[in-house]
């Protein structure tokens, strides 16, 4: 009996020392997010624009009948919008607003891998030299001779982006209640889509 207890205690201690992360790529840089936030990963599918969304929100996608905002982190990081390819995926994450969990999609160039690491291996982000704002980073995760940048989801996503779930649901409800002859919502043509900032810069 004592042996079983010791083994259970050892397993619990090991779990406390180990953290799991999902990595993905944006502009060729490997990022990571804790699996505690990740609900699932889905292949890219049709994204529909909804008026009034923050510029970082590419639109919404239909997840088994639920409306999920899709955020282009490249635009968030002031990079060119992600170009959709056969490897493009949407990472579905749970974020917290006022104690309530909201489901959001993170548009990524491609998904990397799931890593289980000892928490002692996680390093604090440097004071400068990273491609994104330091406030967005939680840790630096060693991946071979390189590092994956671990995002702090709550800090990375703005209040407007987090609340876009509510906006999207309201817009979907209005759309479903509209007359049959109403115009259909605009479906994003990713081959021609530009971030609002990029479009204004070209004018």
Question: Which labels suit this protein?
Answer:
disordered C terminus; 5 helices; alpha+beta; 5-stranded mixed β-sheet; 203 residues
Number of strands: 10
Q: What portion of the residues fall into strands of 2 or more residues?
A: 35-45%
CATH superfamily: CheA-289, Domain 4
End-to-end separation in angstroms reads 75 Å
CATH architecture: Beta Barrel
**Quaternary form:** single chain
CATH fold descriptor: OB fold (Dihydrolipoamide Acetyltransferase, E2P)
Structural class: alpha+beta
Total number of domains: 1
Query: What's the tally of helices?
Result: 5
- Shape descriptor reads globular
Largest sheet strand order: 8-1-2-10-9
Q: What is the alpha-carbon Rg in Å? A: 19 Å
Mean pLDDT, rounded to whole units? 78
Order of helices and strands: HEEEEEHEEEEEHHH
Low-confidence stretches: 178-193, 196-203
Please give the largest β-sheet: 5 strands, mixed
Q: Return the CATH class.
A: Mainly Beta
Tell me the layout of helices and strands.
Elements: H1 2-17, E1 18-26, E2 29-34, E3 38-43, E4 57-63, E5 66-72, H2 73-76, E6 89-97, E7 100-108, E8 110-118, E9 137-143, E10 146-151, H3 153-156, H4 159-176, H5 196-202
Parallel strand pairs: 2-10, 5-7
Antiparallel strand pairs: 1-2, 1-8, 3-6, 4-5, 6-7, 9-10
